[in-house]
């Protein structure tokens, strides 16, 4: 079979996401001296504006040349000491990986096992925190948006649980696949360490680990005895104060981040959150009403607005759907991971997206499912998504006049020639 070279790859994994043309152009820059007197204009602007995305007035944001995993490690090692007790829940591959990291770094992790497809178990957190009268638990870990299962958890509710128990533990939250796409309120929700990365809602390539740190967490740093070097926040604080980094930063990524933040503020965070909910509802309509399938997320309260994990019927391998979609239709879908491997495929719907882009993903996924023998009505998913989006279009409708129909919407009414 001849390799297909026409058309573009349809990227619909839940990260990395599509990069806007403006951001790609912004990253095409000549290298410059990152120790020049001009450089702090760039670094200070992105660090300050990231605080607006985290919704923090009192916290500080740090940027590491790493993935979000690096920001995970920085969050743990700068505020806790080996042997400290951590309370965490495991309900997907990424919550599992953070737990695994904490254990490998020498922390005593108490794990609340949760069925995959559910979110942070607030009642179980409440019970455990109330029982910890000696406050031996030093950190509480939670994944805001579990990318593997398409589940978003109630972080505001978790903060209420901690406050009700009068517990002083630090609250660590993974916002890798939610920041800049799903409402996140660092200050209002009392989040102490908020971990994210560049390749999802910020619409950049992978390569930046981003960490929001509260004043409470900064004050806990001197008590930490964990070894750290590359991820030492003390080095970052000292260098960032003058607009620089303790080691060579990625200049193209910082210029791309500057443009990405410009785009985010032009649209407005609240509008971005609404757009993601609107687009996600169309995908969910395709899945449940069009195809008659189920999401991995077990209840609507847990539905993610950035990724839908779609269960396939018994006898069908989700990995086969993904492979056919990629090889035959040049469509990249997310795989099922660990416990849900082969049981589902994922459509990422975050970042730089609109209805017609998602229509391509829905149509391609539908064709791939038909190709592997799933019983679907051709066009059913596209039809259901179209019905939802047309009925809920946030843009006002306008009638087209007869003159516009004849001459075109932007015509002055005169014909040149």
Low-pLDDT runs: 411-417
Rounded to an integer in angstroms, the radius of gyration calculated over CA atoms is 23 Å
Proportion of residues in extended strands? 5-15%
What is the count of β-strands? 13
CATH domain topology of the largest domain: Aspartate Aminotransferase, domain 2
What is the residue-mean pLDDT, rounded to a whole number? 95
CATH architecture of the largest domain: 3-Layer(aba) Sandwich
Main β-sheet, spatial strand arrangement: 2-10-9-8-5-3-4
CATH class group of the largest domain: Alpha Beta
**Roughly what percent helix?**
40-55%
Give the SSE order as H and E letters: EHHEHEHEHEEEHEEEHHHHEHEEHHH
For the biggest sheet, the summary is: 7 strands, mixed
How far the N terminus sits from the C terminus, by CA atoms, comes to: 50 Å
Taken together, the total number of domains comes to 2
Query: SS-based structural class?
Result: alpha/beta
Q: Assign an overall shape.
A: globular
Count of helical stretches: 14
Write the layout of secondary structure elements.
Blueprint: E1 10-12, H1 21-27, H2 39-54, E2 60-64, H3 68-79, E3 85-90, H4 93-104, E4 108-113, H5 122-131, E5 137-143, E6 145-146, E7 151-152, H6 155-164, E8 170-174, E9 193-197, E10 209-213, H7 215-220, H8 233-240, H9 251-267, H10 269-290, E11 307-311, H11 318-329, E12 331-335, E13 344-348, H12 355-371, H13 380-391, H14 402-407
Structure characterization notes:
With 417 residues, the chain is α/β, with parallel strands linked by helices. The protein has 2 domains: 244 residues, Aspartate Aminotransferase, domain 2, CATH 3.40.640.10; 124 residues, Aspartate Aminotransferase, domain 1 (Alpha-Beta Complex), CATH 3.90.1150. The chain has 14 helices and 13 strands. The longest helix is centred in the last third of the chain and has 22 residues. The chain is globular, with a radius of gyration of 23 Å. The N and C termini lie far apart (50 Å).
